[in-house]
Amino acid sequence: MIYRVFKLKDETSNGxxxxxxxxxxxxxxxxxxxxxxxxxxxxxFGLATNEIYWVLMSEETVSDPSQEIEASGVNIxxxxxxxxxxxxxxxxxxxxxxIYVFRWFSVKNKDVDEIARLSNLAWATFEAGFxxxxxxxxxxxxxxxxxxxxLLVTWYRNLTVWQDSRLPDQEARDLFQRRHQLxxxxxxxxxxxxxPEV
Length: 198
Prior knowledge:
Helices cover 29% and strands 39% of the residues. By secondary structure, it is α+β, with helices and mostly antiparallel strands.
């Protein structure tokens, strides 16, 4: 399964109404071509008021939809093609309201598997201690270069849970510290899941 993370921006507005309308019109077309929306994520912190993450998932054989998105007038600021590491194991659209933190890691590609292993071990007690769930840990599909990017997407019930989770139990803390030593830098972006009114 391939995940494509698009950072989109409405250059004509300071909000998301027009952009969400354009995305809504594209979703059915792209779904018919094999692209399913994992989620639409407007920012709380780290994205502008007219920017959004649109995460699509598809089989590896499905072609990149970037040209079709841009042809509709939507401005793609950035796009990453990623593959899951240890999560998700079930590929389905997100539906739970709450806070979704996108944590981007710059890493050496040789360390991707170890970062995934340490993360998976840490989550056992981390998730048990807080109202939180890791949605996915992704790496770039192409790892031929020395350095690359990973993306961790974590759901929190609310920002209070996120704040409390900054002090996990000692076992998780030690594992996260070992993971941190393997990363070149990290950039978190706090978002919420956009759920259109039915």
